[in-house]
Specification:
Radius of gyration: 19 Å
Order of helices and strands: HHHHHH
Bound molecules: heme C
Structural class: mainly alpha
CATH class: Mainly Alpha
Shape: globular
Helix content: 55-70%
Largest sheet: none
CATH architecture: Orthogonal Bundle
């Protein structure tokens, strides 16, 4: 009898936990590396995972858009000009930097959120 009560308890725990949609479930579905040390970059990864970025970008392989590792290699460091340039591409979209495939605009993403995303992208190594 005790075992059955215990089992019910466990089943409840599993199903309740599964429905709460916590951070572990969202990071599991992304192709991202598990550990991001820089808190700004970690926030960026979370925002990128929630947005549609991974439908067109992979970390180290070419997709519809360039891999984030290639973007990081192109810009090398984060300075004001690089940051502004990438934030603008995220907000307004556009093409011609990597080829003729256009990136869609994301006007709803705030400047701060776009900057966090860039911090994460710049933390990726090939
Ligand atoms: C519809 C597909 C698509 C989606 C969705 C998308 N991108 Fe892109 N992205 C592209 C393409 C294509 C390029 C290359 C555009 C070019 O040649 O200028 C690109 C380029 C970039 C660049 C490089 C810009 C540069 O200056 O070299 C960054 C950074 C970037 N995307 C970030 C993001 C982020 C962050 C998101 C999510 C908010 C996102 N992308 C969503 C297709 C996409």
């Amino acid at each position: 009898m005790k075992t059955i009560t215990f089992l019910f308890f466990v089943i409840c725990l599993i199903s309740c936990g599964g429905n709460s949609g916590n951070d572990t479930t969202s990071t599991n579905t992304s192709p991202a590396k598990p550990e991001v040390k820089d808190p700004e970059a970690a926030k960026g990864l979370e925002l990128i995972t929630k947005s549609d970025c991974f439908t067109c970008h992979k970390l180290t392989e070419a997709s519809v858009g360039p891999s984030y590792a290639l973007v990081a290699a192109k810009y090398k460091t984060i300075n004001e000009a690089n940051m502004d340039s990438m934030v603008m591409q995220i907000n307004k979209g556009g093409k011609g930097r990597w080829g003729n495939v256009p990136m869609t605009a994301h006007p709803a993403i705030s400047k701060e959120d776009a900057q966090s995303m860039v911090h994460y992208i710049m933390s990726i190594k090939q």
